[in-house]
Design goal:
The protein has helices at about 5, 10-35, 35-55, 60-65, 70-105, 110-190, 190-210, 220-235, 260-275, 305-310, 315-325, and strands at about 215-220, 240-245, 255, 280-290, 290-300, 330-335, 340-350. The protein is of the alpha+beta class. The chain folds into 2 domains: about 5-150, no CATH class; about 190-350, Heat Shock Protein 90, CATH 3.30.565. Strands 2-4-5-7-6 form a 5-stranded mixed β-sheet, with helices on one face. A two-stranded antiparallel sheet has the order 1-3. The two termini are about 20 Å apart.
């Protein structure tokens, strides 16, 4: 269907815009034919109005004869042939209408006036046909560009989902191994703690199953997932792991990309806390300011470990995911000093899930 026919307001505006064209052509015909304006309006007004609907049909003609720069001559010849048929059919209808006027008013004047005016009508028909085709090719080009953009976005999101699955498969086995090892030890030495670990581990995995396929979650849900992760690691690492939460309550209901925080926290534990005999404190800072969410994760840094193992797959994967999801509106920055590693995530607080 023609894009204009899909929108009733656009269709009404098109008709209103076509009326001055009809008036101008009728006036021209009246002047050239030297007869009354009302007679010119009666003779040519209805055919010119019908021409508008003929012109809308050129949308399908242009789709059937796609514009190809490499075959521009062939396209031009096809359009010329189609234009001749198009104008001939329209003029035939106009002639039938003039014959009807001749019969109704029993006057040969209408036949004579049509014979006088058909060259101008034909010229108008050809002109508006090619103008309509130019507009249609422009609309088709914009439509293809929009479809290509949507397809690219869809591919980015699919790629992002694949990277998320790869990230989850990387984190979960390592985390599960550590958790189950700690759980096995706790079942004998501290059954109560073992039960807590089991419940928190179940909640952690439930989040992955429940929210893994969603396009967005609330920041509060993501923080709760992080708390479950850190509480399990706390049981395993003991006093070596401490967490300082500094959360702005105004930011907690903002939508966020699922699993956006876990790679930052997992990176902090793996490279900041585990290699250190003394451990340290992970700072989780969240602040909402002027439509932005500022998320900062800070952890102590074992320089030798970072130089030997790098920053991990999680951060590079997260960087790609937020670029695909938020476009250029979000960014992830990391900073190393001699003893501290900082990861800072800037996200728009009113981001909506992209539509496919």
């Amino acid at each position: 269907m023609h894009p204009i026919l899909k929108n009733s307001k656009a269709f009404i505006l098109l008709i209103l815009g076509w009326i001055p064209v009809i008036v101008a052509l009728v006036y021209t015909q009246s002047v050239l034919g030297s007869y009354a304006l009302k007679d010119a309006a009666l003779l040519s007004g209805p055919p010119l109005f019908i021409l508008l609907f003929f012109l809308l049909s050129t949308w399908y003609i242009c789709k059937g004869i796609p514009l190809d720069v490499k075959k521009i001559i062939a396209v031009g010849l096809k359009q010329m042939a189609t234009a001749v048929i198009f104008v001939a059919v329209w003029l035939q209808l106009a002639m039938i209408y003039s014959e009807a006027l001749t019969l109704i008013e029993q006057s040969e004047i209408w036949r004579q006036r049509f014979t006088q005016s058909w060259p101008m009508l034909a010229a108008s028909g050809f002109l508006f046909y090619f103008l309509a085709c130019m507009a249609n090719y422009l609309l088709l080009s914009l439509e293809r560009a929009q479809e290509a953009e949507q397809e690219a976005l869809k591919n980015k999101l699919l790629s992002s989902q694949a990277e998320l699955n790869a990230l989850r498969s990387t984190i979960h086995p390592h985390f599960l191994f550590n958790s189950l090892t700690a759980l096995a030890a706790l079942t004998k030495s501290a059954p109560d703690k073992a039960q807590q670990v089991s419940l928190k581990l179940a909640e952690f995995l439930r989040y992955s199953l429940q929210h893994g396929q969603k396009e967005s979650v609330t920041l509060e849900q993501e923080l709760e997932h992080v708390r479950n992760y850190l509480s399990i690691e706390k049981i395993r690492l003991g006093n070596r792991l401490n967490v300082d939460y500094q959360i702005d309550s105004q930011a907690t209901q903002s939508p966020i990309l699922p699993f956006a925080l876990l790679p930052l926290i997992e990176n902090a534990v793996k490279y900041g806390i585990e290699p250190s005999l003394l451990g340290g404190t992970i700072v989780v800072y969240v602040q909402s300011t002027n439509g932005w969410i500022n998320i900062l994760i800070k952890n102590p840094l074992e320089q030798e470990t970072m130089e030997r193992e790098g920053a991990g797959l999680g951060l590079s994967t997260l960087q790609k995911r937020i670029r695909a999801y938020y476009g250029g509106e979000a960014r992830l920055q990391t900073k190393r000093t001699e003893n501290v590693f900082t990861a800072q995530l800037y996200l728009p607080s009113n981001q909506k899930s992209p539509k496919l």
